[in-house]
Amino acid sequence: MGTTTPPRTLAEALRARGDEALAGLLRARPDLLSPVPSDITQLATRAGTRASVVRALEHLDRFALQTAEALAVAPDPAPYATLLGLLTGDGADDGEGRDDAGAAITAALPRALGTLREQALVWGEDERLHLVRTARELLAPSPQHPSPTGLGPTVAEATAGMSPGRIQEILAAAGLPATHDPVSAVASLSGLFTDRSRMGALLDTAPAEALSVLDRLVWGPPYGEVTPHPAPPVQWLRDRGLLLPVSTRTVVLPREAALHLRAGRAHRVPEPVPPALAAAAGRDPQAVDRAAAGQAFTALSTVEELLKLWDNGGPPILRAGGLSVRELKRVAHALDVTEPVAAFWVELAYAAGLVAPDGEADERYCATPAYDDWLDLPAQDRWTRLATAWLAATRTAGLVGGQDAKGRALSALGPELDRSAAPEVRRRVLDLFASLPPGTAPDPQTLLARLRWERPLRASASGSGPSSGDTPSDLRSRIALWTVNESELLGVTGRGALSSQARALLDGGPAQAAARLAPLLPEPLDHVLLQADLTAVAPGPLERPLAETLSVLADIESKGGATVYRFTPGSVRRALDAGLAAADLHAFLATHSRTPVPQPLSYLVDDVARRHGHLRIGAASAYVRCDDEAVLNEILADKRSAALRLRRLAPTVLAAQSEPGALLEGLREMGYAPAAESAEGDVLIARAGARRTPPRRPPVPVPEGPPVPDATLLTAAVRAVRAGDTAARAVHRDSPDAEAPGALPRTSPAETLATVQAAAMTGSAVWIGYVSADGAASQRVIAPVKVEGGFVTGYDHTADEVRTYPLHRITGVAELADDQTG
What share of the chain is helix, strand, coil (3-state, %, to 5)? Predict the structure, then answer.
């Protein structure tokens, strides 16, 4: 510990640490820095608060937690040998493998104890180990909060309210001599239970049914219910103190007796080493990279397709926020995926800042300006943007479709999807993937077992306190399983194994990942293959201008290694509505086809173009205008037009009570190709991709706790704590108030001036009392460098900076004792 005298308190133990060890504590428990403690005593106090201790316990691995649990049921303070015995047992029931387990525990205990010491959960030398009081209260057994070890209270605790006569009866039944007072009686009974030979002899006389009762209680919970007239085996145990009353109907197996039955072990199965990560399958690393790159390209295409759906205005936002179930189903149908997968893509686009609410009165989701910038990036850079956003996002798409604490459904893009643990779990899962040889896919069950070992107290999604229970449905495990699935969808993994581009992303950042991914992505093509059945086959990814124009001119019929587009009258009309002329379409097809343009496709374009715009739709409430009276007569005679409620205003004009948009759709369904026109009579061109939100920032991840401080902040914080501690504990020479804690030094103005002038000449530090302009009094340790004009300028160790103080506000000054100077 660096001192000759053992520390008596946690504050003394922290004070004896070096600066590096103190920085390690603040790094491991960053909540202690909010705000920076004024001195070591305040740091120790804050480190013992319930909220901080719970957070620290939640970050312990299983064996470090088991070590803390063993200390919670050990005497305080506990020697190292006692702690080791509680973890390894006394060897009385050693079986096959117990020697190896004991060796593993012996080897792992120094590391676990070092972790507890580093985080200030344990302090003291090896012969006097103290678990901080708050941790002991959280982990110690009680009827309301059973111990994670399954042990009950000690004999002394269980007999605290028992009458002296009853205690003497127990001694007599157990074959022990009577004593003169309850304290010695309890000590005698405890000595019996902790003496292996005498306790073994007592249990040899027990009925077999009584031993069965003990077997049910020995590993916990140690409490059992009894009737007013218990069965003889239970009565035998009660008479000898092996079961002690907690209430009229509840008994408990005392800790000393349980430890004897457990052969001294606090835990049934100590776990000193983490579970091994088993490999489910081995793949060729190059095949893994190719598969991951292919899926990465598919991910980019899927996000683009999603945003195209919302290009002219996406779905409306629910009053409570998020997408409705119906809108999510529409997205899933359009992307040809399941609803959970659709929720993942929607949330990924939102996390990357590519989609956001538009802020209009009728609020909808729309693409953001960042989406256009994203489209201009090379494919590998677009993928790293998505992967980086996914890694850091606290929004958890896997929760969509579930319920919150109040039973309300959780919707995609809704406000209740943030889980602060998600980024840490995702990163840890991928780190475990990376720990395996390239091309190796881990077994999911061993992956979950490893995560539960590393953070056992995070097993419960809703638990607010320590718990050692592991459930397969806990949030941390679910996030891990979602991570495995999402990483495959995103192309982080391929065939279940981590790709080399993902390893580069984790180790070197987006630039290195993009460099590894670029050679694996297919080169965009500038051509398609037109076929006589009015289809076009794209044998690979297309260049963006070609893909955008073709998506307007044709409908996607199927996807896969090759994309099949189908030309229909509706798709050609869509291209004409977008402002393209028939000549433009013929030139486009001839330029980008490696095969001759089929005659049926040319006829289709000419036929739709000839009829396109023959009818004109405008707003009267709506009207139909056509120079050919026969066409209008044909429309009026068609029974399908009855719903449009048309009437003739002039030989070439029909009026309708429908909106222009509904009239357009109705006539198109009847087989016509009307065009919308403006109030001036010009044809309105419907161009895609015109609607964007104002500039939006991506959603900010919800932090799990205070951020881990950087080296600069840690150095400054340690200096400030040291300086404040020096000021708070300063012992000065010849001061009558030296023994009064917190009292300001008092000297005359002349003495104050002379002392600070002498300190400035010698370069020594002094202790001053200072009252600020607002009346706040404080104690400070300063090293004066200049005294003039009624002011003293010096280095303030408390504030860790150079400051100037008016001499008239200094209440007094005293030299520091020799052991505090320098």
Answer: 45, 15, 40
